[in-house]
Model the fold of this input.
Amino acid sequence: MRKRVIVISPGIYTYGAAVIAGILERYPGDDIDVTLSKSLNFDGRFDYIFLSLSSTLHLLEIRDTMKELKRKCKDGGMIVVGGPVSQCPEFVFRYLDCDAVVIGEGEIPVERMKRGYEIEEIDGIAYKGNGEIVINPPKQPPDIEHRTLPKIPKDIREQDIRGANVYIETHRGCKFNCSFCQVSEFFGRGIRSRSIDNIVEEVKEFKRAGVKKIAISGGTSSLYYKFRDLLETVSSVIGKNNLSAPDIRVDTVNDEVLDAILEYTIGWVFLGMESGSDRMLKRMRKGIQVEDIIEAREAAKQKGVKVAGSFIVGYPGESEEDYEATKELVEDLWLDDCFISIAEPIPGTELAEEVIKGKEDNTLFTKSKKIRNMSVAEERALDLMLTSYVARERPRILSDELYEKTLKEVRKQGEDIKKVTQMISGGLGYVWNRGSL
Done:
């Protein structure tokens, strides 16, 4: 009897989930029926249920439906968890009564599961054995060049992730080490790039499936070893008005990168600026200074490239002076768009470790003296969002409706990050050794 497998990425079809589903469907081994879903509500029973979780809060969401998931898992079957939260398997096991957790990249463990390996023989996986959690750390990174094509769902064309139907991975790894980011923790510090031919083959498959808008990504798009050639080739397939390469580090901005962005994409970049305080940038281990941010913005403006900037407020230790410096920078940069977020401690990052040590200097847990029932971090997020609406190339009219919408967004963000902080503050238990690959 053919085995049945479902791969679930709650809310959206993530690229990682599509890759795993593709391996299960196409990689040599037992013939199986594979379903890729973005919903936890599904019919039927399955031999394997793979959960690809991109958010820490997914653990709470799925914990409430775990009994139902187990009912839909056949006798002798397994529920396996992967995705960014899997960096800390004991943390996952604390919330979910699953059978196994994939540690880091999932290609090798999933291939070996399909080939019939016993779970004890698989590297890069954690499981329960004799009442204890057994951890088999990964020994090598997977080959991302010669893997199978991802499984592409029929309704992928309806998806919208920051203006794109799908983000396609061009490389893995990051040579930088921002304390709030998980990319280098998850994929390592070395850059592993796929060939342009390999990427284009995938782009063509997505295009045949009806995808129109594609973004390329690997954490920082411009770290791809042939960035201009990549954009030129992909643009010839999908069209420049349908291609974006949004996520660029400030210190990788140069004439070659900007010219490629302008010539072969929609002409936008998304720069991680984070703070207007050199002290906070240093604490975030960002590796840049405010002067670099200003120079990158000016270089893009001179070329005619539109710039969106991302900023983090409420980072532990952020003073009022640090925040005011960030606000002043936003006012001076005159960006085309702006994204503001409260610092979120993602499991496995240095920020999470810092938050675990204590919340005494965490502004997310300090009451605002200006706005009732709001923390200092939320107050700063709201203030900076409102500032960014008017301090931009095309200012937005600050209506009552926009204010209420922004207030609701900030309160939701604050509530979610408080939950994450409370989840990890109980102690992560096992914390994966960063840079092990």
Q: What stands out?
A: The longest strand covers residues 73-82. The radius of gyration is 22 Å. The longest helix spans residues 400-425.
